[in-house]
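S1.2 Input.
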Amino acid sequence: MANGLTFFTAQPGFIPFPAATEVFTEQAEQYTEQFIPLATVQLEQFFDDLHGTVHFLLPTSISVDEQAQQIHQLAQNSYSKHDYWLACQVVDGRYQMSLPLQAEYALSQPRFQPLAAALQQRRAHLLATGALHHPWAKPNKIGHYQDGDRVELISQLAGHSVFGNWSSCSSLPIKQCGSAIDEDGDEMPIELPLTDDGRPFVFIGRVTSYHYLHHTPDDIGLVEADILLFYDPISHMALSTFEFS
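S1.3 Output.
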C-alpha cells in the first residue's frame, strides 16, 4: 500500500511542533520565524536502513506565494534553485541552513499575524488534548473531543510517494520507481526526486500543513499545501516539496 503509517498523536520517534533549537544548528529562533518546524522524524524508528533526524518545515513565503524571492533566487544548493523545492543539510540531526535570513518573511510581520496566531492556538490545543482536531470540532461537557474529529499529524510515513502535481510540474529531475496501490485500490506510479548524481532520494512521509494551522473555520485559507519530505543518507540532504490542493 502507498499509505505507510498515519499518526494522530505524538509517538516515539515522531514529534509534532519541535523546539527550534532541536531543528536548526544556529540562529534557531530567527530561522523558525521563516521556516516553521511542524514535525520531527527520528528515522531509525521507522526505517531499517536509515539513521538520523529530519524535520518538516513550512516556509512562511508559501502563504504569500513569494517563494522565488525567498528561496530560489538566493539558494546556494542546486535543489533549492527549483521552484517549490527546499533542501537542507542535516548535521547531527539538525538543519544547517544556507539561505540568508530575511526580516520581511518573519512571522512577526503584520501580514503573517493570522498565521502566527493560528500556530500558537494549535500548539496550545495539541498540548492540552494530545491531538489536533478539525476546526469545527466541539468538545463534550467535560472538554473531551471525539477521536473521529482528530486530523492526521503525518501520513504515508515510510510509505511511497506517488504521482501528483508535485512531480508532474517539477523542474527537478524525477524518476518513476515502480508502483503502489493507493487507498482506493488503484495502481499509482511511485515517483522520487533524484540526487545531483542520479540516485533516488528516500521518501520519508507527508504532512498536511493546514492541520497544524487551521484552528478555526476562519483559518481555512491560510495555507493549502501538503509537505512531502525526502532524504538522501549519503549526502545527508533533506529535501522537501509541496503539493497544493
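S1.4 Remarks. The helical segments are 28-32, 67-72, 113-129, 165-168.
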